[in-house]
Write a structure and sequence with these properties.
With 252 residues, chain A is of the alpha/beta class. Chain A contains 8 helices and 12 strands. The model of chain B has no long low-confidence stretch (mean pLDDT 93). The chains are: A alpha/beta (252), B mainly alpha (81). Chains A and B meet through helix 5 of A and helix 2 and helix 3 of B.
């Protein structure tokens, strides 16, 4: 029987983003290097070295630790879609320019020290689909734009599906950030999820793992339209003179 | 020639909210599709960058019209005339 891959989740308490460390013996893959310190701690605990870092998409909360990890592990190769690779090199496209303000919307407090940063291009870039094998398991990376142009899904054989922010279990997907597209989400991402095994375990970019069948396959615009039909959620914020957040309150 | 504060202010609105100069007077938060919460983040970030300031939470929330935004910026010694 195949030995299970150990999966360690690293959650950034400030942004609620999840990074994942997949461990197979002393080899590791880092998916979304959000926090360098905790990822390194995990790798050292298991005496592992990362061969790959894979980016589910280009947003700051998922790549903040990338450059520090690259310096620490120069043999590590970074894998991303071509568009993701391009967009991590720009503070507007990677959202680090607005993240300090964005966090105010989801936490209610202004984060004054969120850095505006860029990353170097990925070492391995692809368009469409990329297949590779890791310790006998097939990994299929596929472009699923919508949340962002560079978003991908990572289907890891015998492990599950890593969706970044393109499919979450507790909130709709945001398609209104720079470069996001509701049309792309509906045209590419939704059909991608719909043909996969609904019993797959999904490891999302925020929140707890869930089964694919329980993922929320709609975007924030649809959600807002539904809320406007249903009740006064948006109005209540307006009456208070506040701006409605674009995502629900993050998990504690 | 260096841009005036008013030109910088107007440019931030026009670029981030995709509006023309003649649409600026009377513009208000959620008065147009592009000035939603995401557009607001872009706008505030650009204004902070343009004027070298960091706005407090209450002021980011209070910045709700083209005209009132000038008063908010005045608190940071940014005069828009």
């Amino acid at each position: 029987m195949e030995r299970p891959v150990k999966i360690v989740t690293v959650t950034d308490s400030q942004t609620t983003s999840n990074g994942y460390v997949l461990l197979e013996g002393r080899d590791a893959i880092v998916i979304d290097p959000n926090l360098e310190g905790e990822i390194v701690e995990t790798l050292e605990k298991y005496q592992a070295v990362p061969g790959l870092a894979i980016l589910t998409h280009e947003h700051a909360d998922h790549i903040r630790g990338l450059e520090a990890l690259r310096e620490r592990y120069p043999q590590m190769r970074t894998v991303a879609s071509l568009l993701c690779s391009e967009r991590i090199q720009d503070i507007r496209s990677n959202l680090s320019r607005i993240f300090g303000v964005y966090l105010m919307f989801i936490t209610g407090e202004r984060v004054l020290d969120y850095p505006k940063f860029t990353c170097r291009a990925a070492d391995v870039m692809f368009e469409g689909r990329l297949l590779f094998s890791w310790h006998g398991r097939q990994f299929a990376l596929e472009g699923i734009p919508g949340h962002s142009p560079g978003s991908i899904g990572i289907l890891a054989e015998g492990i599950g599906l890593f969706t970044g922010d393109s499919l979450l279990g507790d909130r709709p997907v945001i398609t209104r950030f720079d470069g996001g597209s509701r049309q792309d989400y509906e045209r590419v991402a939704v059909p991608y999820f719909q043909v996969l095994d609904p019993g797959l375990t999904v490891y999302p970019g925020h929140g707890e793992p869930f089964l694919l069948r329980d993922g929320i396959l709609r975007d924030d615009v649809q959600e807002r339209e539904a809320q406007e039909k249903e009740g006064p959620g948006q109005e209540a914020w307006e009456k208070e003179g506040r701006i409605a957040p674009c995502t629900p309150t993050p998990q504690k | 020639m260096a841009m005036t504060n008013l030109e910088k202010y107007d440019k931030a609105f026009m670029v981030n909210l995709k509006v023309k100069k003649e649409q600026l007077p009377g513009l208000k938060y959620q008065g147009i599709a592009t000035w939603d919460s995401v557009g607001h983040m872009d706008l505030i970030s650009d204004l902070e960058e343009a004027f070298g300031i960091m706005m407090e939470t209450v002021d980011v929330m209070d910045f709700n019209t083209y005209e009132h935004g000038k008063e908010v910026l005045a608190k940071y010694d940014v005069e828009i005339e």
